[in-house]
Amino acid sequence: MKTKYSALFTAAVLGLTLLACAVSGTATAPPPPTVDSTQLDLVIAQTVSAALAQTASAPTATSAASATPVPEPTATPTAIPQTSITHQPDGNAIFLDEKANYALSIPPGWLPIRIDQMEYYDAFSLPQAAEPAFQAALLNISALDPDIHRLFIFDIQDGHLQNDFVNNVNLLWQLDQPLALETEDQVKALAEALPAQSPGLTVTGYSIAKNSEEIPIGIILSESTVIKEDGSEIKLFQKQVLVNLESGSLILTFTSDAEIKDATLPAFDGMIESLSLID
Which of 44, 78, 109, 229 could make an SS bond with 116 (beta carbons 3.0 to 4.6 A apart)? Predict the structure, then answer.
């Protein structure tokens, strides 16, 4: 698939370049930035793990919550190197990743969970666990690699679980794999390549910016329609924030039921503004 895609993308770039030459007559326009397949794979992996995995195998509304087995914790939860979640008196939580060298603040109403850590197993005892969709969200992240998927953050606010989908944020870190984020054209090239590899996804915007800590970020906005197990459809909104760290790259993907994105997106934007680098 990668070979076919690379050939198609190269042909498209070549066609655009030749067209630019023919139109200009005297000047050759620079070719669009190429998309590194590894970078594209990273963003696609984040998109899929954050959104589609929850709905692809989610129980239907008629499933009994008690029918979903609660996973047994291992004797010793898997150690995620140098990460911690500290709950503050004001209801916020601070996620610290000393291996990837960043920190993030999470507001009340959003539940931070690391795979195979005690907060993961404790989540099955929460009132929200009576909802099959919440159980499915937990079960569907259990097999992911915690060294890559550093953190999941679930929206547990009243009234926000609808259409059997749990709004969420996923933090994916890749060691020694930086992203090309110096110019908007580079982010544009990555964004425009996504739909070909993620059927049903439509890119609605892209940009480069800096957060309140002056950290450069790339931003990709998209929408997708997912068919649930019961045959019904749900429209999802995604905002991906791409960050280069000294140790590699960090992709933060926010996925929300599109119907309530105006109520959920500000919380994610606040998390991005809080993102800081640590020594």
Answer: 78
Helix (H, G, I), strand (E, B) or coil at 33: coil
The H or E element that residue 183 is part of is: none
> Which residue reads 């439509």 in tokens?
202
| Residue 134 backbone phi and psi in degrees, to 5 | -70, -40
Locate tokens 């998209």: which residue? 222
We find that the CATH architecture of domain 36-277 is 3-Layer(aba) Sandwich (3.40)
Domain ranges of the chain: 1-32, 36-277
pTM for this entry = 0.78
How far apart CA 217 and CA 210 sit, in angstroms, is 6
Written as six digits, the tokens of 97 are 């990743």
Cα distances from 182 to residues 187, 193, 262, in angstroms, run 8, 18, 29
Q: Can you tell me the distance from the alpha carbon of 22 to that of 66, in angstroms, rounded to the nearest whole number? A: 66
- Taking the C-alpha atoms of residue 112 and residue 274, their distance in angstroms, rounded to an integer, is 15
Burial class (CB in 10 A: 0-12, 13-18, 19+), 108: middle
